[in-house]
Amino acid sequence: MKAAVYFGPQDIRCVSIPDSVIRSDHEMLVKVAATSICGSDLHLYRGALDPIMEKGKSQTGHELVGEVLDTGKAVGRFKRGDRVSMGYSVSCGHCYMCAVGQTAHCETTQKAVYGFGVAFGNLNGTHAETLILPYADSHAIKVPREISDGAALTLSCNLPAAVIANHLADIQPGENVAVVGCGPSGLMVLDIALHRGPGRVAAFDKVPHRLVTAAKKGVATINPDEEGWLENALQLTAGRGFDKVIEMVGYPETLQMCFDLVRCGGTIAALGVFCDNTFNLNLADVFLRDITLHMNGFANVQPYMWESLRMMERGVVNPQEYFSHTFSLSDVDKAFSIFHQKADGAMKMLIRP
Ligand SMILES: [Zn+2]
Ligand SMILES: [Zn+2]
Known about the structure:
alpha/beta, Rossmann fold, 2 domains, six-stranded parallel β-sheet, five-stranded antiparallel β-sheet, binds zinc ion
């Protein structure tokens, strides 16, 4: 079958690999209908995770909508023909961490993530014609036919992450909100936040076409590459800073922006995927300003997939509108390149085998 494989930095290609085969009773074989590239995949693409990727072997991709082809004997919730998505991380549903809802930290699978190399369970990826879902009963979800393929595949990662960001920020009516990062997940954060009755809302990104999309929602948009951006942003809050700040990027620079934007006693919810080991955190500043910091980029999405589905079914958010390009799996290298460069108005890529 065809699948995308990591060969090195900026070298992810579609090649032929052996067909997926069920080897354990808890596994399920799924035919990929559509997949995509997550912002977190760009860390792989730029080589930040090179040491954990087996060159010429490690597959990529963790976002899925597909059809069940076959199930192992222990799979009870799904049958051949079901339309499904699944959480990007594989959780067993039975261990302590799964029981307390921290499914990304599953003790059985040891934090296994689809398409993220040897360190994260050495699993197959969704950038493929078919794939195996281990412990399928515990982290897959049936998806109604009314939900489009693009919207459905965001159940794996983007949309539940946006839901979690809003839960952690806990926006109260009238509160001023800043969202740092207007990629697909950041835009979904905005969609949900705007339903919580916020006061002033500002969106931050360096990519002009993303700011245009955010501005259409009626929020203030600010490019941090422009001089005076911070003063302009703080002016929206009478110079005090934002009550709630949500980070959806994952760089030390963007986390620092959050500390610059948040008011005394405010909350930062950082859902970006951070790959850097160090951050120059000013502890005295955090203490003296009473800042609450949540970091959940390694998000426990499985418990939030139902809520995400409900939001799509009831029209709170429609992730399909963020898809800008469609590629065939054989052109996955082009999809990565355009998404990485944010070229050609790139937002979210739909990839079909
Ligand atoms: Zn993701
Ligand atoms: Zn578990």
